[in-house]
Sequence to fold (255 residues):
Amino acid sequence: MIITVANQKGGVGKTTTVVSLAYNLHRMGKRVCVIDLDPQANTTMTLGMTPDQVLERPNVYKFFAGESELLPTETESGIWLVPSHIGLAHTERALYAEVNREQRLAAQIGLYDAEFDVTLIDSPPSLGVLTYNALAACDTVIAPVQAEPFALDGITMLLDTLAAVRDYGLNSRCRLGGAVLTLVDRRRNVDARTGDIIREALGDAVFASSIPRDVRMVEMTERGDLSLLDGASNAAVAYRDLAEEVADRWLAARV
Fold:
């Protein structure tokens, strides 16, 4: 199962969602791979790999530059990772001149996808060649949605992008499989109203679990301390619940 985590709007908790899902699904006994397609490489660093370490092994930057295959590396946490590097930002610009540039990832990911129960693709917070590669390669899409007034505009743009991927024949499976409300402040009425609007618009696609604002998650990404996901903080508990929902929705039939 290949799941792309996407939202064209930045700052919605996308990296935290990818890392938390990967960690919790791994702890549930799933064999998990993460592909970091974001040139900022925040997911790569959170999973414990420095830029120098990235350059010592196959990575997404080298793959799109034609210098290596798309090969995952096992991290200390037990999660497998195809790491990213800031050099990927320069490589993306060169991809615009290539034929079938949007399907480079899809053409390679099938070589090892069967080895994993789930592969999570962290896409950039922008609409470009790398994001189209993430959408062309997936079985479904999860969208983290921040509970704020313009969230529905971002979801509308994402749905339009997914429709374009299908219409242009890049990936007929590219649909919004789930949306998760993130950075929710339950003390604010606007967050509650936004949540209601999103649920009304997307129906059952919205996960029951919503992720509250939580300084522990900031510390987790800042320090790469995945043990904070085992804690009792509100967001850590919510992310464990979300992983259960993801497993029930898509992974129950997989060994």
The beta strands are 2-5, 32-36, 73-74, 80-82, 118-122, 140-146, 176-182. Residues 136 and 170 are 5 Å apart (CA to CA). The chain has a mean pLDDT of 89.
